[in-house]
Design goal:
- The chain folds into 2 domains: 156 residues, Medium-chain alcohol dehydrogenases, catalytic domain (Quinone Oxidoreductase, Chain A, domain 1); 145 residues, Rossmann fold (3-Layer(aba) Sandwich).
- The protein is 28% helix and 26% strand.
- Helix 1 crosses helix 10, helix 4 crosses helix 9 and helix 7 packs parallel to helix 8.
- The longest helix has 17 residues.
- Bound molecules: NADP nicotinamide-adenine-dinucleotide phosphate (NAP).
- The site of NADP nicotinamide-adenine-dinucleotide phosphate has 29 residues, from helix 1, helix 4, helix 5, strand 10 and helix 8.
């Protein structure tokens, strides 16, 4: 087996495709032959600014899907030949072996899920980072503390009176958040551009409002009447979205707001509104935050199988291998709407 990677040699430079070391999986890892990788905003942010990089050259990429080709000695849940989707953890571990933009990636088995035969690699690959990010923000006790769904269990009907706002339901993270909350049985309100209203409802939102409408907070407040407010998750975390979420929570009597980004300037918070920002602390060398592992184990693969989880946003696929990754990064940098840019590495 020969490996090639798309290296980022320093910030502000284009990706460079070169031979790369073929990793041997650590005891708790699997080695995956990547068939498809997806591109996230963090990838172009790293390319532009060097943020989060401790050592150059760096291998970007968090979302991978492919076939298991080696398993570490402590791994019992996967075997060679399994079709899997996984979170490539370089962003956490700072190890080139764990970067996604290469032909072979080693990653913690706890951040891997089987893909049902009916789901293509290029579809499943849209999920890993978005699902992990939304899970941390929704389910960790220090964030919204919602009970995570388990795909094999029925959706709890008693939760329907509980309401959560997901701001930015057409984003990758927001799409995952809607699906997770809907599977947990909650009533979900969200905000999107009008063209994405049906998209958000298909994912399980009860109502979707235009975030550019000056009456958006009023509309959300009216839709929330009579419900028990669990809190809000701002999957966009711009100053404007954050301010609108704070206004909503204030209007409905207070609550907790969970954010995707840590560096957005916070407004003065009215009484009763609290903000928790960023992702939960990452624990353990063997694969990230416990709530991520739980969702990967109990929801990702099984949810794709039984339909509680859809591979959304839809993939916009660039065929042709590692050489298309820079073009993909440039597309994400320009901005996408209810789409995930995916590069097919092997057809
Ligand atoms: N902290 C973490 O671990 C972490 C992880 C992943 C992502 N993030 C960050 O979270 C943000 C979202 O990432 P992503 O991959 O989900 O983004 P994305 O899919 O690229 O987001 C694009 C979508 O955002 C929506 N949008 C843009 N501005 C909006 C606004 N003001 N209100 C509501 N929706 C808006 C658009 O919706 P319409 O098309 O409907 O207009 C568009 O569909 C990025 O800043 C990313 O870096 C952080």
């Amino acid at each position: 087996m020969e490996n090639k990677a798309a290296f980022l040699n320093s910030k502000g430079t284009p990706l460079s495709i070169q031979q790369a070391h073929l990793a041997q999986p650590e005891v708790h890892e699997v080695l995956i032959r990547n068939h498809a990788v997806a591109i996230n905003p963090v990838d172009y942010k790293i390319q532009d600014t060097g943020v989060l990089v401790c050592e150059w050259p760096y291998i970007l990429g968090e979302d991978i899907a492919g076939e298991v080709v080696e398993v570490g000695s402590a791994v019992t849940s996967f075997q060679k030949g399994d079709r899997v989707v996984a979170f490539a953890l370089n962003i956490v571990t700072q190890s080139q072996a764990n970067g996604g933009f290469q032909l072979y990636t080693a990653t913690a088995a706890s951040m891997v899920s089987l893909i049902p035969e009916k789901v293509a690699f290029t579809d499943a690959v849209v999920l890993p980072l978005g699902l992990a990010t939304a899970s941390g923000a929704l389910f960790s006790t220090e964030y919204l503390g919602i009970d995570p769904p388990r795909a094999a269990e029925p959706i709890p009907t008693e939760n329907k009176k509980k309401l959560v706002l997901i701001w930015g339901g057409a984003s990758s993270v927001g799409s995952c958040a809607i699906q997770l909350c809907a599977a947990a049985g909650l009533t979900v309100l969200t905000t999107v551009s009008p063209k994405n209203t049906n998209y958000a409802k298909d994912l399980g939102a009860a109502e979707a409002f235009d975030y550019n409408d000056s009456a958006v907070v009023k509309n959300l407040e009216e839709a929330a009447l009579g419900k028990e407010i669990i809190g809000a998750y701002d999957a966009i975390s711009s100053e404007a979205s954050l301010a609108a979420c704070v206004d909503f929570l204030h209007a409905v009597g207070g609550g907790k707001l969970s954010l995707t980004l840590t560096n957005t300037k916070l407004p003065d918070l009215p009484e009763g509104v609290t903000v928790v920002a960023g992702r939960p602390p990452l624990q353990g060398p063997d694969g990230g935050e416990p709530i991520w592992r739980q969702v990967y184990k109990d929801f990702l693969g099984a949810g794709l199988q039984n339909g509680k989880l859809k591979a959304k946003p839809d993939a916009f696929v660039l065929k042709g291998g590692l050489g298309r990754l820079q073009e993909g990064l440039d597309l994400v940098r320009t901005g996408v709407s209810a789409k995930k840019i995916v590069v097919e590495l092997m057809s």
